[in-house]
Design goal:
Radius of gyration: 30 Å
Shape: elongated
Number of domains: 2
Number of strands: 6
Strand order of the largest sheet: 1-2-3-4-6-5
Number of helices: 10
Order of helices and strands: HHHEEEHEEEHHHHHH
Strand content: 15-25%
Length: 311
């Protein structure tokens, strides 16, 4: 009887444990700012249309067609474990768009964006073709760090234009930058669609997703897509692997920075000590101390002391 009761208790505990796991699985939501999750969201055409409409300031109905050209992990070098996952989209058959998310600070981001949009532009033409084959190229950077220190604005848009007259040299290149670190804590009553999208990308809590989805039908589509991919076991494994790679990379960079800072402090102390010894030696020389006496006090070599005497 006791054994049966014990077995029953074990079974109940097992099922409770399984139930908690199932609930956790159902409640789990990927973070849209993890590039893998964002890429999967962009596979939904409605979400894609809404996001591009908000960033490019064009009406959703003017977006006739969006086609995913490719999504791939771009690495700067062979040893790069993190890489940057980008989403390439063709808009209305005449505009190529490259969307990238970068979570860790990268000070050369502007130069990097220019390099890749230039590459995207030049790759459109083949030998013997005329220059009218070029499509407009748009770079959209979603950054989880502050790139521009001179403004509190979370959104910036750049074109190639003349300095004085502001005449556009060409509209074939365009840069959009979203800095998630500058987003307001709370939303006001009348928010534009771009701010809603930026908040959606940076959100983590279900209640925030619910609130944002209620404000914008395209974000609602993105949220539904997020819920679907979050319940997909294979995609969740890929997501967690990607999140871990980014987390490991950030930790590695933090440790490298801390190590460099400690080395810098030690180097500063050593330089301070050397400077102090120099000043003490000069004073001792003025006071008439002998070289041997100065060596005993400062631990400097006779050659170093003689060099200071000659200054």
């Amino acid at each position: 009887m006791i054994q049966k009761q014990g077995k029953k208790t074990v079974e109940i505990m097992y099922y409770r444990k399984q139930s908690r796991k199932d609930i956790a699985m159902l409640e789990f939501l990927m973070k849209p700012r993890i590039d893998f999750a964002f890429k999967e969201i962009m596979m939904n055409e409605n979400a894609r249309t809404g996001f591009l409409s908000a960033v490019l300031k064009i009406k959703p109905e003017d977006i006739k067609k969006t086609t995913i050209l490719n999504t791939y992990l771009r690495k700067e070098h062979e040893e790069d474990k993190q890489g940057i996952l980008d989403v390439r989209i063709l808009l209305n058959d005449d505009t190529e768009i490259d969307i990238e998310i970068q979570l860790a600070e990268l000070k050369v981001w502007a130069d990097r964006s220019l390099f890749y949009i230039s590459k995207m532009y030049t790759e459109q033409i083949q030998e013997g073709q005329k220059y009218n084959v070029f499509k407009k190229c748009v770079s959209i950077s979603i950054l989880n760090f502050t790139l521009f220190k001179d403004t509190e604005a979370y959104y910036s848009c750049f074109h190639i234009r003349e300095d004085i007259r502001n005449t556009i040299l060409t509209d074939k290149m365009e840069f959009h930058v979203l800095e998630l670190t500058k987003l307001p804590e709370e939303l006001k009553e009348n928010n534009d669609d771009l701010l809603l999208w930026a908040k959606f990308i940076s959100s983590e809590r279900k209640e925030d997703f619910d609130m944002l989805a209620a404000k914008n039908p395209y974000i609602e589509s993105a949220y539904k897509q997020l819920q679907v991919i979050s319940q997909d076991k294979q995609k969740r494994l890929e997501y967690e692997a990607r999140e871990k790679a980014i987390r490991d990379y950030n930790q590695m960079m933090f440790e490298a920075k801390e190590s460099g800072r400690e080395e810098g402090i030690e180097e500063g102390i050593e330089k301070g000590i050397e400077k102090g010894k120099l000043e003490i030696t000069k004073n001792l020389i003025v006071l008439g101390y002998s070289t041997d006496e100065i060596i005993n006090i400062t631990k400097l070599t006779a050659q170093a002391i003689d060099s200071i005497r000659e200054q």
